[in-house]
Amino acid sequence: EVQLVESGGGLVQPGRSLRLSCAASGFTFDDYGMSWVREAPGKGLEWVSGISWNTDSIGYADSVKGRFTISRDNAKNSLYLQMNSLRAEDMGLYYCAKDRNKRGYSYGLDGMDVWGQGTTVTVSS
Amino acid sequence: QSVLTQPPSVSGAPGQRVTISCTGSSSNIGAGYDVHWYQHLPGTAPKLLIYGYTYRPSGVPDRFSGSKSGASASLAITGLQAADEADYYCQSYDSSLSGPYVVFGGGTKLTVV
Description:
- The structure holds two protein chains of two kinds.
- Helices cover 0% and strands 49% of the residues of chain A.
- By secondary structure, chain A is mainly β.
- In chain A, the strands form two sheets. In chain A, strands 2, 4, 5, 6, 9, 10 and 11 form a seven-stranded mixed sheet that branches.
- The termini of chain A are far apart.
- Chain B is built from no helices and nine strands.
- Chain B is globular.
- The N and C termini of chain B lie far apart (28 Å).
- At the A-B interface, strand 4, strand 5, strand 9 and strand 10 of A face strand 3, strand 7 and strand 8 of B.
């Protein structure tokens, strides 16, 4: 079964850091681009960051650029999101999502067909 | 404000047909990038409903269909069911100067009345 399981969320003070992880199983992880997408309370889906299958293409939403870093460890079938200088507006449910197309040109270009259940990030003093 | 524009809400009675529009610009849909649609119940994993404007993943009922017109896309749902009540998002790719980005519409809440 193709599965993504996020972890690492929690309560953190403004300005502090958190590292999210996404464990993938059931597919050849290093053939697929991956993204992080978040859902803030009462808001819609917002793409946060993406990384292509070969790491040639990496991108960030303007709202997190310079503060968040996406990475992947293909040997561990894992995707990560290092979040620094966290703000209240970063609060939400963070999903990792798999590209639909194998070895696509870039992350998210052809849609995302598998999503995890999400991990919750709360930023509060 | 989202890069892709969707109506905030639509509604329909059981059995009826509804459509949801998604309007972009020259740096995303108008640039030739595909549009994909997701069904989402808040707090649960979004589900890919349509990819490449018109294609349905395996397991998605043919009551759901997508179309394209210029720099816009639409999702149609026929034979509305109570289980269809959810938020629907369009998604594309944007190649603006500071990008590229994955972009979502603001979401449309479907109510089955």
